[in-house]
Structures are given as C-alpha cells and as structure tokens.
Write a structure and sequence with these properties.
By secondary structure, this protein is α/β, with parallel strands linked by helices. The strands form three sheets. Strands 5-4-3-8-9 form a five-stranded mixed β-sheet. The chain has a two-stranded antiparallel sheet with strand order 1-2.
C-alpha cells in the first residue's frame, strides 16, 4: 500500500457523492481541498467529527478550502446519515477502498474489530481517520492520520494547517 506524504503529488480520483455529485480531485485545481477520510457513517467518533464540522459551519465555510468526507459506505448510506444529522460536508463513497489504498490509509480491521462499530469492512479492511490538505497545485501540504481513530482534527486544527501552508 502506497503512503502519500507531505510534498507528494496527490493521486487523482473520481468518486460519487451526496447530492448527486461526482467529485474529481483534478477538477478542483487552483483551490485547496481537504480530504477527510473516516471509517464509517453513523459511528460515534465519526458522528462527533462531522457534527463538529456542521456546528462550526461558518468557520468551515470561511476556510480557503473545499472539505469532503470519504469512507467506504455507499452513497445511499451517506445520504441517510447527512439527512439524520443535517451534515454540511459532501460525503464521497469509496466502496472498494481504492482511494484510501492510494493514499495509504486503508488498514486491516483485525483485532481492532472489537473496538469499532463498523458492521462491514470490505475485504477485512477499514479506512483510518485522516486529513489530507491538497494545495491548489495538486500537492499534499498536510497529512494527519489517527492510528486508533479515537480522535479527529477539528475545524480549528484544519484552519491552522491551512494557515501554515498559505
């Protein structure tokens, strides 16, 4: 599995997402993009993470970046979760974990299974909670991976990371 690090060119991808959109990373050149990989819809920490983004919508909207969430659940699952929680971040479906693998954030569920609420793990794998900031030129300028998935980067953390690369 490849590991994308700060300074690397961000692998391009195209995924289906909420609101009937298709998101292709290369179509967002010229603008910073925050890729928020997360393990699963409607799980405890993921809900806290994306509800915190919802609750700080004004601050999130004021960032010089487009923020998208990426996980292996289907678009239908994402749509239900967005509606239930009134989420404001577009969610993309990486059902086969191809994008997570390209970014080096697909891990083996293994012994962690008893600590997670994930009911399905494609091929026994899951997505590690992580944030990548892709600069408008298509280069990764920030990378944060939570090995346990128990914590996440807040809107303030993302804002600080964006300010550091400006």
């Amino acid at each position: 599995m490849a590991k994308i690090d700060v300074g690397d060119t961000a692998p391009d991808f195209e995924l289906a997402g909420t609101g009937g959109q298709r998101f292709k990373l290369s179509e967002h050149r010229g603008r910073n993009v925050v890729l928020a990989f997360y393990p699963g819809d409607a799980t405890t920490v993921c809900t806290k993470q994306f509800c915190s983004y919802r609750d700080k919508a004004d601050r999130l909207d004021g960032l010089d970046a487009e923020v998208v969430g990426i996980s292996p659940q289907s678009v239908d699952s994402h749509e239900r979760w967005v509606e239930e929680q009134q989420l404001n971040v577009p969610l993309l479906a990486d059902e086969d974990l191809a994008v997570a693998r390209r970014y080096g954030v697909a891990g083996w569920l293994g012994p962690l299974a008893r600590f997670t609420e994930l009911k399905e793990a494609p091929g026994g794998r899951y997505v590690m909670r992580s944030i990548f900031i892709v600069h408008g030129e298509g280069v990764v300028r920030h990378r944060h991976v939570s090995r346990t998935g128990a914590s996440f980067q807040s809107v303030d953390d993302i804002a600080a990371a964006l300010a550091a690369i400006a």
